[in-house]
Write the structure tokens for this entry.
Amino acid sequence: MNASLLMTLPELVLAAGAILLMLVSAWGGQTSTRGVSIAAVAVLVGAGVALAGPAGAGGEAWDGLYRADSFAAFAKILIFAASAVAIILAPGFFERTAGDNLRPEYPVLILLSAAGMSMMVSANDLLVLYVGLELQSLAAYVLASFMRRDTRSAEAGLKYFVLGALASGILLYGISLVYGFSGSTLFPQIADAYAGPRSLGLTFGLVFVFAGLAFKMGAVPFHMWTPDVYEGAPTPVTALFASAQKVAAIVIAVRVAVAAMGPVTEEWYPIVIFASLASIFLGAVGAIGQTNIKRLLAYSSINNVGFALVGLAAGTQQGVASVLVYLAVYVVMTLGSFLVVLQMRDADGQQVESIASLSGMSRTRPGLAFALMMFMFSLAGIPPLFGFYPKLAIFNAAVDAGLFPLAVAAVVGSVVGAYYYLRVVKTMFFDEPGEVFRPVENPVEGGLIAVAAVLVSPLGYLAIPLLTVWTTTAAKALF
Amino acid sequence: MSGFPILSIMLAVPAIGAVACYLASAQAARWIALIATLVDFVLGVVLWASFDVGGAQWQFVEHAQVFGQFGWALGIDGFALLLIMLSVFLMPICIGASWEAIQTRVPEYMAAFLLTEVLMIGTFAAQDLLLFYIFFEAGLIPMYLIIGIWGGANRIYASYKFFLYTLLGSVLMLVAMLWMAHSAGTTDIPTLMRTDFPLHAQYWLWLAFFASFAVKMPMWPVHTWLPDAHVQAPTAGSVILAGVLLKLGGYGFLRFSLPMFPQASAYFTPLVFGLSAVAVIYTSLVALVQSDMKKLIAYSSVAHMAIVTIGLFAFNPYGIDGAMMVMLGHGLVSGALFLCVGVIYDRLHTREISRYGGLAINMPRYAVLFLFFTMASVGLPGTSNFVGEFLSLMGTYQISTWIALLCTTGIILGAAYMLYLYRRVVFGDLTKDDVRAMTDLTPREIALLAPIAAVVLWMGVYPESFLAPMRADVAMLVARVAPAAPPSDSRPTAGTGPRTIGAAPVAREEAH
């Protein structure tokens, strides 16, 4: 019992912190926003520190419902870091946006969402998975519509909720099928059932579970909500969706695929390959016509999910490690891009989102343009930027697993994808300067952009040995 | 020199210079760039001077396993040495050519050029497969910016085309490289060069590498990015593009395709020969009808590069020596020709051939230098291109007389389009007022062109200086590929006639 408590310490810290801060914000009202935000970041840091203990690699807790291994710990660190960034960015964003203020509920909701994601990635049972996923989703629906006076934000929240509820239903249906035909919701016992005689019910359950998870990660063909929600949600929330949420959804999909459905690799394998290639190509082609930078980044995230799934399709330990490498670097690149998007302000300080407004930014805001160029080339996977390395790791895993057609198709997709990243660079560097953005003197945001830019620069390659050891250990924990 | 990391320093100098340029003012950036490239040139001279001809195959080797599965592995052989020399020689000239022509966003421009230099030297010096790929591919970013920001009217289209074409070629190569690393268990290029890959895999690997190098080279029919990129790029951009970036393709064939997949190379030789023969004749004819000077030289580059590919796939020392010499000679001569175009473009701001005429009257010094480089491009004996083309065609003749015959016509056509260009620009009457007002070469422009002219002459008169460093490497490469050489149609039937080696010069004489 005590051991189980220690192993779930990060989630307990997050949940207790969220409840406590909710009370503080209820009593303190609007004035407590700043204090609650700082406390929320502290709670996230605390949860991260708690991973150093048994929560980092302790094994099974709560009679096998929950797994605290280094695989989950790796994902949790990314999730907590991205959540903290989403909280740190918010005051600046809402301050500069007319009509809506940041309220203390915002950090509380992010904490709840983080607690849900943290539960998800450690789930060793379909119901724990479902509860975690719903906790993070419900918080996310509210966060998406946080700008109450903005119709786009309200639309995003509603759309996300309706489609998300549908996806949850699909997932739950899949879970019920799997439970009905395997007699258990625990991953190891499900795996035993899959290893036994084939049954149609189990296969259907597998398909529905993957469909539900594909919705959560925004993989094609369940991606339709992504551009609308990403566009409408407040930018810091979009950053959270594009980073932490993707990490949680992909990581749990990997866990389900390997730990629960490992014996029937050949059954989920075509699903993953289809979702992967369709995401890569649709993400790349869909982005070409976009004029809004947030929608562009939404398609970019679909595209990136596709690449991460290539690693899962490999199905090997090396493949899983490459997915983790991919996610780690992807989080840095995508958060960096959204940080730059946050700097796009017109003379009145209002958010500008059109790609055309970036024109000539290399002359009006050279530092910012340079940073965004690095993120774009990095997302496109062009060396010497560090974004190349995760793609290399993914393709390497696919080639080692003998998946040449998939690797070749994926690299061709990356060329299509390069086009729209190039378009952003072209707008910033080749076009004549347009309206000048109002400089934002926010040392925190500037500092975070600089940190992200350094991480994706060629200096990032020096982190490869560390990243390799870390992800290999994490992947080993799963097999 | 052992233990002194001269290659790393040659990479570090322009890299540091690039950062310094980016932060400096316009005039300071020009000087920083010039000094950094000159320092690199001096280091290059030191490198050549201390290169032990006939010594170890790989010299100045550095190795540090800093990136986990791949490492910072550098080292050069004779081929890499000469191509690095070409890069560091052309770079200060490019900076000088941009001294006055580039007036906007100078710090970024100089930084992009220095970055290009880092990546080119890195590509030639890399001894690790993945490190090679990183340098090879990264060169796209600065060139994309150079074409897109400082290019001509249609620069955006050209920059996209350049980027996406070359990227598509490269990513296929990446998958092949990963397979090789997986199969051989190493990413060390010297080891891979001695690895015998299974035959069925060789074909696929060869095709994947071919996709990349054929685009870079560029070979017909994937050459169409080159004229666009050249025409739109600023003068110095064209010089670097023609001078060094095009050599990456040839270097790739030399370093990867031939030694790593000799059987596949032999199997696909007819394909390479066929495409090259088409390229020579077709692009020469296209060059003949161009009205834009830069486009004409760009098409002539495609034709010259085809002479390189036939030489490389001749599977004998003549062909490979010749291919290397054409690469070096073409790098210098077409670079110089682009500079010559830049000189008059800076004065009249048009590249239309018909807008000029009679320059011999008011620009005599220019006319002389332009004539010299025109002749070098045609392949006049005594210039660098003669040596290269002669050897290359001689090597090809031993494999395929027909291809040698077809490609030799390129030299006749080359003479036609180059002399036609020269006649229209330099000779004739001086009828146009704005052309009459053009002034002759400034000391700066002479200082840019004269060193190239000197080296072109040196290569033509005493090619031994350039052949010697790579002799051992050529021998090693031939030893590796010769057993797989495709059947020849020029071998004498048993017991009849002398060795056919004397036949090639006859074909050559017809050309002149």
In short: Confidence is low (pLDDT under 50) at residues 502-512 of chain B. The interface with chain A takes residues 66-69, 105, 108, 119, 130, 133-135, 137-138, 140-141, 144-145, 148-149, 155-156, 159-160, 163-164, 167-168, 171-172, 174-175, 178-179, 181-182 of chain B (CB under 8 Å). Strands of chain B lie at 59-67, 70-76.
